Amino acid sequence: MTSSVRAPDVEANLKRSITLPQALGVSFHQIVGGGVIALMGVAIGLTGGGAPLAFAIAAAMVIVYSLPVAVLGSAMPVTGGRYSYAARLISPSMGFTTMWFSVLVTIQLSLMALAGADYLHSLVPSVPTRPLALGLITVFFLANLVGTAFSNRLGIVLAFVMLAAFLLYGFAGLPHVEWGTFADSAPHGTGNLLTAAAMLTFAITGSTYVAELGREMKRPGRDIPLSMIGGIVLAAVLYVFLAIPSVGTLPITEVAGKPMSVVADHILTPGGFTFFILGGALASVAGHMNSLLLTSTKPVLAAIGDGWLPTRLGAVNKRYGTPHWLLFGLYLIGAIPVLTGFSVASIAGMVSIAATPMLAIMIIASCRLRSRYPQQYEAAPFKLPWGLHLTTVLLGTAVLAVQAYLLLDKLTWPATVALVSWLAVGAGVWLVRHKHANAVVRARQDDDEASPLPPRTPAR
């Protein structure tokens, strides 16, 4: 029997335009944009000569809990995987939880904008940092407003510029490296090495965001796993390569806790230094912001389709195929911390805490895929043996639990107040909308009992 409650088709105008190179660009930018720029000095401070090893360990950890998400993306290419997987495989309310956390994660727009502005400020001290950061957010909001194809082409260009700048840094630094620095990979103890690796995992988890774009990919069943795991591997190789001159060129005491620009200024010509700041640091931050705006509307759009928020909020522009009101809302979320003077540490704390339960829910949801929707699982291009699947879920959940423990200890008081306030608003929305949303989900499943998702999101 079909329910009288109908699910609004808010995704109908989204276009299948994203290719594998573009998806790899999104994955790569989500990782490299924040991690190598923001955390290199922190990793060196914790590990000394073990920083390259810490990056490699972090990448291995992220691959472990990305594999279950890759399975989900291959079997169920959807819009807004962070919402849809939890909602269909666990419960609509759990989907709402992941969506609400994912919106909070979008405040990293301000983190990236402030980081980019700080690097540019080192070149032009007369430029005020916060107005410049707001300008960066505005530029990429407008780029995504006119369509994913345009913003993805821009992302590919930025990726090549960034890669050229980072390779210049790496190859210029290698002749200056004192290789004896790496003789002891854990000079401050194995505990600090593992702590650094756990901290760096957050810098590499951005590749999972590509699962948000299944509805807009030309071949999502194949391209989601390839771009997700491929992005992690490519970024990990680059991180290790950049960590070698960052650690071995100058004494550890001069680079611990410092930005990469300290080493860049030592090994590069003035022109090369300028290119590294603009083409490396600034382009990586810009690429991260671009891909973040591209992916962050998707879980909200999917939740709107299930009735959690007003339908008009998810209106998609028919000319450009972009959800303009959602993009504007996320633009505001990214801009407000810049305008109100939040520190980078406060923003980073909120982002980290919000991402951890969101990822844990997604990988746990993957366990129900085989038994609940076996036909879609068997048709997926990417699958895991059950033993390996279960192992990755258990290990991934454990890694995330340790990561959450480490991050909670670093949460600032302003960030705690903001986080609690956001969760309180979310609880209010859930109380008002959960009965309606549950009815919409039942109607959607009644209309297509053979599939957990609407037929407009087939696996390919």
Approximate shape: globular
Radius of gyration: 21 Å
Oligomeric state of shown chains: single chain
Separation, N- and C-terminal Cα atoms: 30 Å
Task: Report the mean per-residue pLDDT as an integer.
Answer: 80
Order of helices and strands: HHHHHHHHHHHHHHHHHHH
Low-confidence segments, ≥5 residues, pLDDT <50?
Answer: 1-13, 450-460
Please state roughly what percent of the residues sit in beta strands, choosing from under 5%, 5-15%, 15-25%, 25-35%, 35-45% or over 45%: under 5%
The major beta sheet can be summarized as: none
Our count of helices gives 19
Secondary-structure-based class equals: mainly alpha
Number of strands: 0
Helix content: over 70%
The gist of it:
The chain has 460 residues and is an all-alpha fold.
Walk me through the topology:
Elements: H1 20-32, H2 35-47, H3 51-75, H4 81-89, H5 92-105, H6 108-123, H7 129-145, H8 148-173, H9 190-204, H10 220-248, H11 252-255, H12 261-267, H13 270-305, H14 324-340, H15 344-365, H16 369-372, H17 374-379, H18 386-408, H19 413-447
Q: How would you describe this protein?
A:
The structure is a single chain. This protein is mainly alpha-helical. It is built from 19 helices and no strands. The chain has helices at residues 20-32, 35-47, 51-75, 81-89, 92-105, 108-123, 129-145, 148-173, 190-204, 220-248, 252-255, 261-267, 270-305, 324-340, 344-365, 369-372, 374-379, 386-408, 413-447. The chain is globular. 53% of the residues are buried. The model is unreliable at 1-13 and 450-460 (pLDDT under 50).
